[in-house]
Each structure stands twice: as structure tokens, then as C-alpha cells.
Amino acid sequence: MYEVAIIGGGPAGASAALFTAKAGKKTLVIDSDQSVTRRAWIDNHYGAPAISGPDLVDTGKKQAEKFGAEFVTGKAVKLTAGTDSLTVETETGTYEAKHVIVATGMFVDFAEASGIQTKPGTEPRIKTIIDATPEGKTNVANVWAAGTVAGVSMHTIITAGDGAKVAINVVSELNGERYVDHDVMKKD
Asked: Where is the FAD/NAD(P)-binding domain (predicted)?
């Protein structure tokens, strides 16, 4: 069983995976490879000179994998809550996790099929989003939402930051105390 399963491998999902895996949590990312970021050119991402969306997504995935996050390609179709775990059903199999972060960008079909409450979106072209608290919690215990699907602006820097924020909240809950991830430069 995974401690954290993340649905979506775009900036929000991969950023969440980077933080959960770096915190030592067994992390799985289920990615359908449909991120709209894969069609973007990005000139406004702090710390990254002009970069193509595919390069940004691939770099984020490599960073998360460096810390042990596992990525599988597939479409998650439904989540079922059990007594001690959540089961994520994909088109080709199932996965179990203690916590699930939904980071599906513009797509809410997984959330709707899983009984996760949605509400009207506020961003242009985003009709529906998951109804989540500012921390990322949804109406389903141990299911969280991050990024555009949680109602934040779809700019990559904002969705990546939201994925990190939600991941920190998940890790804090798993640890039973507030988690902080802060590296310092090593002396030569």
C-alpha cells in the first residue's frame, strides 16, 4: 500500500509527489499524460528561463522520481473509500493508499465518479472544480485536491506551489505534527 497516491502528473501533481517522496512517504503518481501544460510555452515561471511545457513537466517528474516517487501511466476512473485505505481504480488495475491527492487539472470526471463534491469554477474556461478547503481537504476523508482542479489559477507556478502546499499538509497529517522541508546549502 502507498502512503500517498496522486492523480495527475502535471505541475501540481508532480510538485506534490516531489514533496511527499522527499519526506520519505511511499508515493505513487497515476498520470494520464493529458496535462495542458504539455501544450504550453512558459515565460513566467520564477527561476526557470523560458521553457516548454513538456520540458517543465518532464523535469518535475524526474525531480520526484529522484526521491523515490513512482509514476505509472494510466487513467484513474474512480476512488472507493475503505476502512483503512482508499482504492484508486484505473482502466488497467487498482492501487491502495492511505491518502489521495487529486491534481487532475481541468478534469473533474474522476472526482465526480468518486463522490467528491464539486462546485462551479471561477477561472476562465474552468467550469467545475473540486470543493476543497484552503488546506486542500475534500468531503471524502483523506482525499485532497491541488492545483487547477482545486480552484487555483492555472498558471504553472501557482499550481506547482499549490501541489507543494497540499503535500506538506498531507505529510503533516501522516506525521502527526507540522512538517517543514527546508534544505540548506552544503559547505565546500
From this structure: 2-116
DSSP secondary structure of 69-89: -EEEE--EEEEEE-SS-EEEE
pLDDT in tens, 91-116: 999 999 999 999 999 999 999 999 99
Domain boundaries, the chain: 2-175
DSSP string computed for 129-176: EE---TT-B-SSTTEEE-GGGGT----HHHHHHHHHHHHHHHHHHHHT
**All cell numbers assigned to 117:** 463534491
Could you read off the pLDDT of 31-79 as tens digits, one per residue? 998 888 877 888 888 887 898 888 989 999 999 999 999 999 999 999 9
Kindly give the pairing relationship between strand 128-130 and strand 118-120.
Answer: antiparallel
> Residue 30 corresponds to which cell in the numbers above?
497515476
Looking at residue 54, its pLDDT comes to: 87
Q: Is the pTM of this model over 0.90?
A: yes
Q: Which CATH superfamily groups domain 2-175?
A: FAD/NAD(P)-binding domain (3.50.50.60)
